[in-house]
């Protein structure tokens, strides 16, 4: 791990004041944000829902080990919604991804939590990690047209020729990322660096310690922060945990198994309704699903959108729907459209939402950031045989996601051809000390399966809150049992009851 700078050195480098005005247009690293209206950052309509919110940025060095006031910098977008009552400090929120905007998430949370004890006691703060969301430079590897073209690729042919084609698609993407962002910036976007950036923002806000709420990948970022700065953690709630000790193949197998479990739950629920496109026999749910989506490898399905529904988008839309039961009805509608040959547009809309495409055809950079961060966070095996074995295991764990028969060939992931080396490696999380962390894990979470939360809680010596449900993350999502325990811990540092299940 890189060494942490002291708070004094981060906030006010001794040479900062000596920089003549106009000598550099760059903001000095770690200066407090110059707060202003959030209209420009998040849009006036969204800003009106959180009228007290203020937005700004904190500059950080691209290369921490060569940090100097004239060096290359990234500007981290920050939103802060001031506490309305007896203030404890800041509650920093990260929604995960990696690549999701914490600024946008906190704006939405601020409106939803208005009048709550959390809003009374904490400044709600969101920091977009370098390259993510509203931070600059924006980590973007593809144009909108290039992303649309990528989504038309089935990426399903695992013959030797098909695998070679898929790997070439990945190789072109990796090269485009290097060409557009540069190797130095790509090498700087890992989670260990993001944790270091987070501590600079803490210091810039004048806080001695952080109270933190991390969802999904945000649990990995929180664990990395706790490892580097244990004394600066006041309290952390980590919901939808990622086990940082898993290698990428094992993580993938466990995750697809989680999605199979969620698919089975969806299909069983669908079967209770007349006309379910998957039928009523659990033994045939997966077969009927493949009967509907597999033909899309050869020809897009019908939608009112001229793009049609590609095979890749059908899978992406299905996966998106499995994150929450609220989306199940749209999955059913899309599958019915395929069955009837009419309009499978709801599946395309689900895919668009997952990929960050708006109605004008413009994409957020979330998926590019997701890949770039993941590729520098852990080594990926380059051996083709390892990926063929991973494909065999994935087909067993999640048959609904598997096209065709096992061939003994499979494409290596894009990270195996990434233009910069990894900056971290899998290792178990460490505890920042007793009473500082609570982990929340959902029994039917498809994206971050329950066992990862069990393991993270054990690694960090933290109590575990178990939520019985089929969804991804739960804190402040309407469950009174979970929310009460989370608020009691964040506000009063009161641990949840042993073995709490909600």
UniProtKB/TrEMBL annotation:
One Pfam family cited in the UniProt record for this chain: Abhydrolase_1
AB hydrolase-1 domain location: 90-477
GO molecular function terms attached to this record: hydrolase activity
Zinc in keyword set: no
This protein's UniProt keywords: Hydrolase, Signal
Family: Belongs to the peptidase S33 family.
Record-given protein name: Alpha/beta hydrolase fold
């Amino acid at each position: 791990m890189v060494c942490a700078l002291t708070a004094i050195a981060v906030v006010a480098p001794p040479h900062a004041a000596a920089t003549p005005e106009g000598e550099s247009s760059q903001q000095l690293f770690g200066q407090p944000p110059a707060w202003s209206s959030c209209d420009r950052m998040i849009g006036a309509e969204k800003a009106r829902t959180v009228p007290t919110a203020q937005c700004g940025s904190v500059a950080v060095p691209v290369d921490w080990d060569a940090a100097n006031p004239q060096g290359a910098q990234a500007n981290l977008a920050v939103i802060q919604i001031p506490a309305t009552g007896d203030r404890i400090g800041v509650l920093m929120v990260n929604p995960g991804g990696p690549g999701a905007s914490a600024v946008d998430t906190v704006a939405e949370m601020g409106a939803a939590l208005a009048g709550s004890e959390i809003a009374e006691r904490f400044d709600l703060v969101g920091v977009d990690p370098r390259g993510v969301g509203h931070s600059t430079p924006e980590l973007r590897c593809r144009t909108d047209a290039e992303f649309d073209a990528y989504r038309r690729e089935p990426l399903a042919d695992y013959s030797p020729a098909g695998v070679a084609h898929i790997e070439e698609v990945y190789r072109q993407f990796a090269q485009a990322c290097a060409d557009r962002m540069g190797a130095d910036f790509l090498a700087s976007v890992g989670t260990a660096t993001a944790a270091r950036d987070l501590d600079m923002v803490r210091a810039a806000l004048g806080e001695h310690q952080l109270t933190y709420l991390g969802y999904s990948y945000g649990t990995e970022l929180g664990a990395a922060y706790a490892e580097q700065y244990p004394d600066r953690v006041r309290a952390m709630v980590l919901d939808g945990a990622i086990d940082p000790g898993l290698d990428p193949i094992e993580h993938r197998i466990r995750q697809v198994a989680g999605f199979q479990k969620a698919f089975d739950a969806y299909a069983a629920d669908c079967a209770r309704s007349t006309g379910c496109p998957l039928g009523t026999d659990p033994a045939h749910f997966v077969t009927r699903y493949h009967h509907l989506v597999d033909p899309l490898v050869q020809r897009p399905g019908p939608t009112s959108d001229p793009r049609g529904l590609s095979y890749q988008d059908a899978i992406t839309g299905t996966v998106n729907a499995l994150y929450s039961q609220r989306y199940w009805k749209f999955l059913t509608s899309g599958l019915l459209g395929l069955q009837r040959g009419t309009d499978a547009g709801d599946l395309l809309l689900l895919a668009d939402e997952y990929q960050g495409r708006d109605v004008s055809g413009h994409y957020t950079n979330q998926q590019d950031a997701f890949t770039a961060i993941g590729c520098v966070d852990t080594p990926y095996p380059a051996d083709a045989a390892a990926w063929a074995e991973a494909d065999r295991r994935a087909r067993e764990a999640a048959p609904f996601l598997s096209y065709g028969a096992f061939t003994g060939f499979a494409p290596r992931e894009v990270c195996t051809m990434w233009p910069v080396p990894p900056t971290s490696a899998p290792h178990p999380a460490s505890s920042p000390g007793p009473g500082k962390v609570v982990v929340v894990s959902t029994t039917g979470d498809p994206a971050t399966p329950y066992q990862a939360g069990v393991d993270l809680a054990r690694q960090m010596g933290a109590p575990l809150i178990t939520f019985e449900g089929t969804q991804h993350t739960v804190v402040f999502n309407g469950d009174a049992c979970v929310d009460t325990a989370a608020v009691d811990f964040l506000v009063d540092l009161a641990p949840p009851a042993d073995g709490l299940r909600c």
